[in-house]
Amino acid sequence: MRKFDTLVSKAVAMLTPDIDTDVIAPLDSLTSNKSVAQCAFSALRYIDGDMDRCEPNPEFCLNQDINKGAQILLAGENFGCGSSRETAAQSLVDLGFRCVIGSSFGGIFFENCFKQGLLLIELPTRTVEQLAQLVTAGEFTVSLKAEVIETPTRERIGFNVNSWRRRSLLEGLDAIDLSLTLIDQIEEFTRHDKAKRPWVYSAGAS
Amino acid sequence: MSTPRTLVAKIWDEHVVAELGGGYELLFVDRCYLHDLSGPISLRELKARGLPLAHPELIYSMPDHLVSSKPGQQESGLAGHARYIPVLREESALQNFSFFDIDDDRQGIIHVVGPEQGITLPGLTAVCGDSHTSTHGGIGALAWGVGTSDLTHLLATGCLVDQKPKMMRITFEGSLPSGVTAKDMILSVIAQYGCKLGVGYAIEYAGQSVTDMSIESRLTLCNLSIELGARWGIVAPDDATLSYLQGRAFTPKDEDFDRAADYWRSLRSDDDASFDREIVVDISALQSQITWGTNPSHTIGINENIPHPEQAPDVEVGEGWRQALDYMGLEAGQPIEGTVINQVFIGSCTNGRLADLEEAATVVRGQRVAPGVVAWVVPGSRRVKQAAEQQGLDKVFEAAGFEWREPSCSLCSAANGERVPPKWRCVSTSNRNYMGRQGPASRTHLASPQMAAAAAIAGKIVTIESVRALAQ
């Protein structure tokens, strides 16, 4: 898994609440020849959400020149709610983002983002709004190790990331490799479980 | 004596294999469901890593999202779809896991098939690369959706890495008015409390109306848990659950059933178990619900007016309402009743079961779909379709001018190329009304099967009673 250590970048704000994973990643990228990046946010990004004509909606933040190159996204409440599609996390990565800061996130999306090497930071709504005021002031520095964000105006804001997720991201740990080292424990569990709940294992694969 | 525990905690604790740190645990998963979108992606990832399947005997797979619902059902011919269903078909044969192909009598939408075949059982952990896996909680299973990275992990190890959720209980009080359903109940909760109420929680549903409702209705209730933000929804198993399961193809038989049933009967929250949050909802005056906007919290009763953005709880939410009204082509302050529609979709893992079709048929019988309205009924599985045809429901719908179609996710997610055209308004018994969900610029109104049926007949969003009155 891709590691995350320190990021220095400008940020872009997208504070509308409840932006869902269907909006972030329409299914077209899975079932057509269009790339994930091309389809991302299409309902907001293109006129009439048309992913064939791809006519940019000039009002959408990611279409504005001033925001190009931003690797930090400041998100609205409940960002990434809805579908479990991991292409939503992949969309952000393919659009160049490495970090998303918001007050709340869809639960499945949250886990998927970390799997894709994205750092998601939860801060109070008020703080996210204050950071959004500073997007034109310069670059932000995000340190996962120190758990600190430094704003363009040199203010330092602390954050907390779950210790397991933090370690995984700092060290680029692979969850499957890790779990496979526990194979004996898993087998021990199933041995006992088959005696206790045989009906779980005996359903015919016919 | 041990601390009192919730039902979810009991099932969770039973499945813990190891502690990992930060509150993350390694959990054994009893049922791995693979559908035709996330399944092939994870199977390919596993293959690329050179790893075998840990527990092929616990995998159940079937195509649903990409299957055409056109009568004489075939695999969709769309470019890009060839990467999916054939992979499930080939890998299931190679690696010996269950696969219900398109022409299999058991095929259908995975969250309809799992419960109806007795594959999902009380007390089991069940996972799929699909957020509506919460549906299976209606059987008393601990069931949830994950992304493809987690799904690949499950294939490789038989386990998932996850954090025990916080516990919420939603108790419904009062009796459900006639014509009002589980779909309306859960939509009204999302309307009142918003889409992020349940983030970080597992929700247990309780109350007399939940105990009294059919298993199919419990599945509907649990299905929309994820739209509240909760990955897990559950209803404690009881005698109704056991009756439902008895005799189904994959349900244990004879002594195995009796032994399992003893354990299943113990699966309930302890009387003094504490929940992190408890909510009580009075449903005695509940109206039929319908969404007006672009997420499930944008819901009102059929007799209510579309809200003004100024009425929103805060500026950002209000801005979201404004964007939704613009996208949906609706005017704040207007009654939702009377909104002209173009299309109706009855189906999906939310409301594609036999009881849903029966309820819709009672509204449709003897009536005609309004001119210009495209109306589809897509049964949730082959089994549902066959049972409905045995009762003559297909004839009822077809006589009224509905298309009677083949089992598929179809218009719920529009993954198979079936779409609601741009700017068309569709009343849908599915679970999401997000922008572009049913097709670019499509306009979705979520509702119950009877409300969808009534809209098809009237050609607009109306009360169920007004259409029933036409039949007299």
Explained architecture:
- The complex is a heterodimer of chains A (206) and B (472).
- Chain A is of the alpha/beta class and 206 residues long.
- Chain A contains 11 helices and 8 strands.
- Chain A has helices at 21-24, 28-31, 36-39, 42-45, 87-94, 107-115, 125-132, 163-171, 175-180, 183-196, 198-202, and strands at residues 6-9, 11-14, 72-75, 99-102, 119-122, 140-143, 148-150, 156-158.
- A 4-stranded antiparallel beta sheet of chain A has the order 1-6-7-8, with no helix packed on it. In chain A, strands 2-3-4-5 form a 4-stranded parallel beta sheet, with helices on both faces.
- Chain A is globular.
- The two termini of chain A are 37 Å apart.
- The model of chain A has no long low-confidence stretch (mean pLDDT 95).
- Chain B is built from 17 helices and 19 strands.
- Chain B is globular.
- Chain B is an alpha/beta fold.
- Chain B starts with 6 loop residues before the first helix and ends with a helix.
- In chain B, the strands form 5 sheets. Chain B has a 5-stranded parallel beta sheet with strand order 5-4-3-6-7. A 5-stranded parallel beta sheet of chain B has the order 17-16-15-18-19, with helices on one face. Chain B has a 4-stranded parallel beta sheet with strand order 11-10-9-12.
- The longest helix of chain B has 14 residues, at 315-328.
- In chain B, 33% of the residues lie in helices and 17% in strands.
- The interface between A and B is large, with 67 and 87 residues.
